[in-house]
Structure formats: structure tokens, C-alpha cells
Amino acid sequence: MEERLQTTCDKCKDLGLLFRSKHGISPVDFIEGNAEADIWIIGLNPKGEIGKIEERSLNKLKKFNPNCHPYFKDFKKVSERLYKNWEGSDSNIAHTDLVKCFSDSFPPKVKNSGMKKQRDIVDNCVEYLMKQILINKPKLIICNGSRVCWEMIRIFPPKQANDRDSITSYYTNMDNHKFWIVLSGFIGRIDNRNKRRLGMEIEQIIEKEKISI
């Protein structure tokens, strides 16, 4: 079995991080659910032991079921309508992460993981996220967690710089592809009232853009 493993990214090898796959999945392929979905949820990084191997094939990634973990089930209190669609085989919702390598925490518990190294890890992965967006063209991206929000604001700055600290969503574009970004604290740590408030904002964008769910 070992000889079948493939390292498809070693940009962070000096930090002990490698993206390895049993089936040759690349970081750009790392999308849970339908990659062509209009709605994406972006987390910080996949939780697991450093060095964990991605054992799923592309087909298994596509058949992702959000009921597999409480992290995803929290979205049911954000929007029942959204979550119901996410559970379906023809879902218009997908999930990926800002950083593609597994670790139990972020920053990863590796030697020399200071602030500069954290920035290096994120910067090394940014190109993969940008490629994912350019290839699949989601219409709405929901950021899960303040770190993800700030990184997305850095990558896709709002038109008005002074909006950075107050906006909760904004319209942006990359290479003529236009899409919405919704900013949120970590879903699992906000109360139910604010989960639902977030859901209403998301649903308003879905209606405005005529996104199918």
C-alpha cells in the first residue's frame, strides 16, 4: 500500500507538513462535495494528525455527507433550507479549507511555528484556493472563522478599505468571475440567534443571485 501513496504538495515540508494522497488527489482537487456547486463553505484546515494521508478518491470526496461530523451539523441552525440541500446527492453546496494539510490545530504544533511560519503556510496554500475558485466559479463563499475571514479579505480586498472592520458580506471578483463572500465567526462558537442571523443574510444573497437550493 505504501508505494501507492503520492505526495502532491511539499511546499511546507520544512514545517513537517506534506499533502499526501492514496489516490493522487492534489490540493486543488480537495473539495468535499460537488466542486461545481454555487455555494462553498471554507474552513481553516482539515482536522487530523500531522502527516495524515487523504484516503478518499475523487468520487468519495464528491459524495461527501455533512452529517459525518458536528462541525458541519452546526450549519443546520444557520439555515435549515441550506442544510437540507447540502445533504442531497445533487447538492449545490461544497466545502474546502484555506490550508489543505491536516493538523489537529492551527497553527500546527510543529517546531519553529511562529507567526512568520503561519503566514508562510497560508501563503503557500493561497494559490490552490484561487485555482479552485477560477476553475469551478462558485457564486457564494461562506467563511467559517475569523482567521479565514481575514485571509479572504486580504486576498480579495473590499472596494472600500475602511469597510474591512465592519462589513459582514461583500461582492468581489477575480479575473472577471464575480462572487459573494460572507464573513462569520467560527460557526460552532456563535449562539443560535447569531447563527440564524447569519443564515438570513446568506438566504438573502441566494435569493438575490437566484442560486438554486
| Low confidence ranges | none
Please summarize the sheet with the most strands.
Answer: 6 strands, mixed
Tertiary shape:
globular
Oligomer: single chain
Structural class: alpha/beta
Helix/strand order = EEEEHHHEHEHEEH
> Strands of the largest sheet, in order across it?
3-5-4-6-8-7
Q: Which bin fits the share of residues in helices?
A: 25-40%
Q: Please report the number of helical segments.
A: 6
Descriptive account of the structure:
The protein is an alpha/beta fold. The chain contains six helices and eight strands, in the order ββββαααβαβαββα. The strands form two sheets. It has a six-stranded mixed beta sheet with strand order 3-5-4-6-8-7. Strands 1-2 form a two-stranded antiparallel ribbon. A hairpin with a 2-residue loop joins strand 7 and strand 8. The chain is globular, with a radius of gyration of 17 Å. It starts with 5 loop residues before the first strand and ends in a 5-residue tail after the last helix. The mean pLDDT is 90.
